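Submission sheet (multi-component)
Chains listed below:
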Amino acid sequence: MGGAKFQVKYEENRDCMKTINEQSERKSLRDVRVGENVRIFDFVNAYECEIGENSRVGAFVEIQRGVRVGKNCKISSHAFICEGVTIEDGVFVGHGVMFTNDKHPRAINDDGSQRKEGDWKLIPTLVKKHASIGSNATILPGITIGEGALVGAGAVVTKDVPDGATVLGNPARALR
Amino acid sequence: MGGAKFQVKYEENRDCMKTINEQSERKSLRDVRVGENVRIFDFVNAYECEIGENSRVGAFVEIQRGVRVGKNCKISSHAFICEGVTIEDGVFVGHGVMFTNDKHPRAINDDGSQRKEGDWKLIPTLVKKHASIGSNATILPGITIGEGALVGAGAVVTKDVPDGATVLGNPARALR
Amino acid sequence: MGGAKFQVKYEENRDCMKTINEQSERKSLRDVRVGENVRIFDFVNAYECEIGENSRVGAFVEIQRGVRVGKNCKISSHAFICEGVTIEDGVFVGHGVMFTNDKHPRAINDDGSQRKEGDWKLIPTLVKKHASIGSNATILPGITIGEGALVGAGAVVTKDVPDGATVLGNPARALR
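Outcome: structure written.
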């Protein structure tokens, strides 16, 4: 990732989290709650989310409101983590991974009016601990990715992935 | 998307467009023609293009010269919209969607010289109104995506999508 | 790409390379060794790598340490080029292309400790001269992409691509 550009310091309480706001040249962090030793690289857009201790967030990542990232995770560059996603401890999210939260994304409503919050239903996604999601994978809404599961690079995950399973392809299927 | 960082104000004429140039810390906008109430988020690179009223452009998006985006569109984070693409009103472009405009992309010509404008043929793409393109989809050059059509997340679209159709997969096929 | 924002000037020696460091508003370049006439656009994160003369690097690109990019290459926006990748002269890397270097990416080791350098094996990748990699393609670790080969947009490349071959799909297969 190329050198930590941001590191939270804790003087007193190892386990507490702390809310940071940084509107600097190369970062847009608004109400990001972080654990100890979290590293967030340049060109990151994150807001109203939580990132557990020792986790790392690469360049060109967006993390939306309400997202919870556990401890010891790696969120690689170019990933997009949308509202409704929960990521447990020790998860690897590869480069360019896209999560989704809307089964029928549309810019406008049937009556032609612009879609706003409340006009669509957010479908949550859960990534269980120690799972690994390969680069450029796409995760459809409402998916649970099981503990220690492996999603292959470039896979399009359209149904739940059992604990420990490996899935590949578009649509993603379990490796025999 | 996390809070509008840029919003065009119109005092007098609701329907006019206005050309903006902003070379700020977190934005590179050059000769971007925008309608009323267009919102462009941080870390966007756009130039010599047009974005219709009420449309939103997410973080880490690049929009090239000559692109026209209609009204009430949502261009999600990490999308790339190249020269030759026209997007009608009310279109949703998901996160990480990549358009293309060259059937035979090469860095160099057959004689080993570096490729320049005029050495290749731009193939245009049209996305008709109210269509929706899922995250991480890839759109090959010369495609027309029909009115109200839905392109599934992660799909690779290699031929035209009829009005109202849903296509999925790599290569993308119509949902039966 | 929208106008060169950075251009190296050479006064005396056409063939020499030069190491640049730029920590500016919209660029993070650390120990990037560049040839003559290299253009690097905004919002790029690159470090400890080498980019040959006349090559261009688009917006939202990350290039990691040890990467070598040849002369006359085009690295398109949103691409990620990881440690272990070597790109020869005259190569086109499309938008959103993701390279990888770890067959079993994990955030943590089996004992639950956070993964560090030395805890995993880097698998190198080679892209031979004049090859072209379409947008949103994913390149698995350890791949050699042959001279003049073409990787289709959205392809997931899981095995070597012979010289001059065209491959498409997920997993990528040779065009008949």
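Remark: The domain at 18-104+118-174 of chain B is CATH 2.160.10.10 (UDP N-Acetylglucosamine Acyltransferase; domain 1).
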